[in-house]
Amino acid sequence: MMPGRARGHARAGVAAVEFALTAPLLLIILAGVSDFPLALWDRIAMAAAVEGGANYAFAMEQNASGNNGSVSPADVRNAVLASSSLANLTVTVSAPGTHCVQSGQGNTPPVTTLTAGTPGTPCADTTMPGTYMTISASYSYAPLMPFFAMLASTTLQENAIVRLQ
User: Where are the transmembrane segments (predicted)?
Assistant: First the structure.
C-alpha cells in the first residue's frame, strides 16, 4: 500500500463532515435573516391599512356637508380592518375631538403635539383649533425563528392623526 493513497482515503469524508456541521448553522442564519423582511412587510401592510382608515375618515367628514364629528370611530376601525390582510390586527380609534397643534420649538427633531382646544376660541398661536381623530393599530408578528424576538420587538405599532376639519 502506498502512503499517499492511505492519506487520500482519510480525507475523503472531511467535506461531508464539514458540511454536516455548518449546514444547520447556515440554515438558522438564513431563516433569521428572512424574519426581518417579513416583519417589515407586515409593518408596511399595517401602515397602509391605517392610512386607508385615515383617508376614509377624512373623506366621510368632507362628504358630511360641514357636520363636524359625523364620522364614526367604529366605521373608521372597520375601514382599517377591511383594508388590511393581517389577521389579529388590533385597531383603536378615538372619537373626533377639538385640538390645537403645538410645535415643540427647540426640540431636535421638532415634536408636534395636540393639546385640547375649545371650538371657536383661538389657540395660543392665534390659529383656530381643528377636529382631529387618532387611529392606532398594533400587530403581533409571529417570527419564523424564536431568537428573532431577542433582536427586535415582535409587536408592531402604527399611529395616524387625521384632521377632519
Answer: 12-33
